[in-house]
Design goal:
alpha+beta, 5 strands, elongated
Length: 113
């Protein structure tokens, strides 16, 4: 049900990105020291015929660009990407999703001062 609702709403808000910041670590550090904060960005896009992006691309290179842009705005000087996931939902609502395919890329990483 969530996917169908997302597919119906996505054309209205497609080609956007959101980010979330976490700053509480309970006193724990990482191998590289204590990060200033963790950052999660999610890029949403819409492709035509699964592979051709409309307007803005939600693939990995563009998602990393947005991730680093948000990290800079939050006064970060160094990033470390922990996790990346790209989903192309062409099987959500066939045959419509074969023509207009929702694409979501999520990147999670550490941001250092």
């Amino acid at each position: 049900m969530k996917r169908i609702c997302l597919l119906l709403i996505l054309p209205l808000v497609f080609n956007c990105a959101t980010s979330e910041k976490a700053t509480r670590f309970n006193g724990l550090t990482t191998e590289s020291g204590k990060p200033d904060h963790y950052l999660r960005t999610t890029s949403y896009g819409l492709n035509v015929l699964v592979i051709f992006p409309i307007k803005r691309n939600a693939e990995f290179p563009e998602a990393v660009e947005y991730f680093s842009e948000v990290a800079k705005k939050n006064k970060g000087s160094k990033i470390r990407i922990i996790q990346k996931e790209t989903s192309k939902w062409f099987l959500v609502l066939p045959p419509i999703s074969f023509v207009l395919t929702p694409v979501i890329t999520e990147i999670v990483g550490e941001v250092y001062d």
